[in-house]
Design goal:
Blueprint (H helix, E strand, L loop, with lengths): L9 H12 L3 H14 L4 E7 L5 E6 L6 H6 L27 H7 L2 E7 L6 E7 L2 E8 L4 E7 L6 H6 L3 H16 L6 E6 L2 E6 L4 H9 L3 H4 E7 L3 E8 L11 E5 L2 E3 L2 H11 L11 E7 L4 E2 L10 E2 L2 H18 L12 H8 L27 H20 L26 E4 L3 E6 L2 E6 H18 L5 E11 L2 H9 L1 H7 L2 E5 L3 E8 L7 H15 L7 H13 L9 H11 L15 E5 H7 L2
Parallel strand pairs: 1-7, 11-13
Antiparallel strand pairs: 1-2, 2-6, 3-4, 3-6, 4-5, 7-8, 9-10, 10-13, 11-12, 14-15, 16-17, 17-18, 18-22, 19-21, 20-21
The structure holds adenosine-5'-triphosphate (ATP) and magnesium ion (MG).
The site of adenosine-5'-triphosphate has 23 residues, from helix 2 and helix 4.
Amino acid sequence: MSNIIKQLPDSVANQIAAGEVIQRPASAVKELLENAVDAGANDIKLIIKDAGKTLIQVIDNGSGMSPMDARMCFERHATSKINKAADLFAIRTMGFRGEAMASIAAIAQVEIKTRLHDEELGTCLKIEGSKVISQEACQCAAGTNIAVKNLFFNVPARRNFLKSNTAETRHIIEEFIRVSAIHPTITFSMTHNEKIVFKLQAGSVKSRIVGIFGKAYNERMLRVEQQTDTLNISGFIGKPEFAKKTRGEQYFFVNKRFVKHAYLNHAVAKAFLELIPTDAFPTYFINIEIDPEEIDINIHPTKTEVNFKDARYVYAILAAAVKQSIGQYSLTPTIDFDVDPTVEAAFTQLPNKDLKQPGIQTNPDYNPFKQSRPTGFEKQQSRQGSQDWEKLYQGNTSAQQPEDETIEPSGTLLETEDSSSFFQLHQKYILSNIKTGLMLIDQQKAHERILYEAYLEQLSGTSSASQQQLFPQNIHFSPEDAEIIRSLNNEIEKLGFVIDTFGRNGFMVKGIPSGLKETDVAAILERIVQNHKEQSGDLNYDKNAILARSMAANLSVKAGTKLEEQEMADIFQRLFSCKVPQVSPDGKNILAIIPLTEIEKFLK
Ligand SMILES: Nc1ncnc2c1ncn2[C@@H]1O[C@H](COP(=O)(O)OP(=O)(O)OP(=O)(O)O)[C@@H](O)[C@H]1O
Ligand SMILES: [Mg+2]
């Protein structure tokens, strides 16, 4: 039988390789921008026509190339960035595989003009489907100007596969952002069909983010900073109230290279847990500087994946850094995730400029749950929160307005004869008359949040309030559940339970948390076990959070419970003493505001 195996011609091999590196115009944009960054440019211009399908041009003022290098750069595996295998673990440049230019030239018509800074003449080279058409000396600016025309002209299947111009442009903009956001000392511009899309001056990372995403980001960002012996984390996160409904603005960079990393994303998401609704995504721009030896970036031709030698360590440091940054930002409830301007205005219009929250009239010593749940920490929290709230309420009462301030009169929508501000709707929602309109609060979720934070605080402390059981209850569990109860023994005691074991799987409950009904004991222990089982495999697993959530869910005032005016006032007041009044422990929205302007529209 005759031999049938042949070496493929370079042009075919290049085209196959191009399939991995260049999937769409945006991939070529990424490669060209990265080459310009690697060439040390401080000014990079991107010019696009027809979503990159007709033209992608990148002009840089970087090192430029000699005529010989300009020819060489289109060869496969030709690079100036590494020499030997060991260099793969010391990569500081964006490129190193030596295949981007060869790939692009295999599937497009390319024209490059390039000149070294100390040469008078540059070189102009044309290459098409891997074939060099011409090369000659030419006058050109120092640096490199590369024009990629008619991408996929010789791969119709790929060309037909491209999406609409809008979709392809979106991809290009995304790549432009990924490179420009993390190189703020380089001036970047992007033009599409002769219209300027971005013009970014050199400056700080923050000014770059603002340059890309708009002025509003000045107020939205929190700085993240953490240094250890082996890594340096820096960047910005969006304040929790600006979390997005889509996974839009999430940028991780490792040594200034944009990467996708689900595990690290999880570290950030974890730090935001319970601060944002479960269906929202935090914004972040975070760069991790790490010794290149500690990572492997050469996993995929597009170089957007990275393996860390010690991913768990990076995860822990990152989560801590983000948590710290959120913690330092004093959480002033801004009430509405959508940041309705009228709501913001309502709070900033209050006469006392130091105060940021709306207030209500309430008796700070009144505790509607005194009978059923007179736990120490609840009372304490109630008192603490009330001070601010009382002051704030003054701002909403015309009698106490300072003379030189004019504020709009408080709405009278819900005011009854005794000027009360609360009304219960369907025994489920508390309606409150606030300055800009109507606030709706889910009574059960609000109370869950209040109890959850209180129990969390109790679990992190040492003291616990317990009431002795006159007749100890015996409770039996399955062997597996009994083991869980034993493993949580310390925490359960902190909640106020006094439990002895008897037999292998039996427990004698001698004391229970103050406020808990004896009849609820078995149910709550079962809920704790159940929640623990469901979440112990979770990366977010947090013993205290599970226990506090279980207690809060069991003890909260339920939908369908009629509330007195003072009880509603108490919930309202204590909710806004919470760290996170906007969302319930399981991430659902607790409240909403209907602005007066909307109500007026209804009734037109
Ligand atoms: N804009 C530029 N300015 C100066 N030199 C450039 C420019 N673009 C490419 N080069 C040179 O051409 C070489 C080949 O570029 P190419 O993008 O194909 O490979 P690479 O950047 O080394 O690696 P990778 O394939 O990972 O991008 C580079 O190593 C660099 O020396
Ligand atoms: Mg490159």
